[in-house]
Design a protein that fits this description.
By secondary structure, this protein is an alpha+beta fold. Helices cover 40% and strands 19% of the residues. Strands 1, 2, 3, 4 and 5 form a five-stranded antiparallel β-sheet that branches. This is DUF3828 domain-containing protein.
Length: 205
């Protein structure tokens, strides 16, 4: 039994010494890592020891990933609107033009805080039932001929007039905007008949 085991080819193969730089380690032995140029000695500890090479790769990858996450955390998710016209134009981008699968203005807190002053945000949060979307003067929409006029700016206040058609019906709205430290936000909107966004939200409580 002992002789048969001693002559077993599989066991004999296990007893053979492993060649230096075999397989995966051999391929890493010939690659150039960051900080190691061709001038690095072939038998230096950094190149001769595969464990050291893997440690350098892991350290470099971890450092890069940490830096990327830090930059993403520091950057704002969305920049505030630089002009009053931009705020109104981006608002109507939620509706598109013609037949579309868009759902209109989202009413999540993040979107509301980006587009509106705090008083309007609170109005949306307290509203229980809004019969119609104020910005399209209805529930359904298929917009066309949306025209945002240049803003009339006085200090940190501005007015932007909008002409559009919803399902062929012409609409006119005047937007009032306020400028804060980070940009412009919508403070109210008004129809030619005198109804306003603030009044609509108050009636919906």
């Amino acid at each position: 039994m002992g002789q048969q085991l001693a002559g077993d080819p599989f066991l004999l193969g296990l007893r053979q010494p492993r060649q230096r730089g075999h397989g995966l380690f051999q391929r890493f032995h010939h690659c150039v890592l960051p900080g190691l140029g061709p001038e690095a000695p072939e038998h230096s500890p950094a190149t001769a020891n595969p464990v050291n090479m893997f440690k350098r790769i892991l350290t470099s990858t971890t450092t890069a990933a940490t830096l990327t996450l830090a930059l993403l955390a520091a950057a704002p998710a969305r920049a505030q609107f630089a002009t009053p016209e931009e705020a109104v134009t981006k608002l109507y981008a939620f509706y598109g033009t013609g037949k579309t699968d868009l759902m209109g203005l989202p009413q999540d807190k993040k979107t509301l805080r980006r587009f509106f002053v705090p008083a309007i945000v609170q109005g949306y949060e307290k509203a229980e039932l809004i019969d119609a979307d104020f910005f399209i003067q209805g529930q359904d929409f298929e917009l066309s001929d949306v025209k945002v006029a240049p803003a009339a700016v006085t200090g940190d206040k501005a007015t932007v007039a909008v002409e559009l058609k919803n399902m062929g019906q012409p609409l006119h709205l005047d937007f009032e905007l306020a400028k804060g430290k980070d940009g412009w936000r919508i403070a109210d909107a008004r129809t030619p008949k005198g109804d306003t966004l603030r009044k609509t939200l108050a009636r919906s409580r």
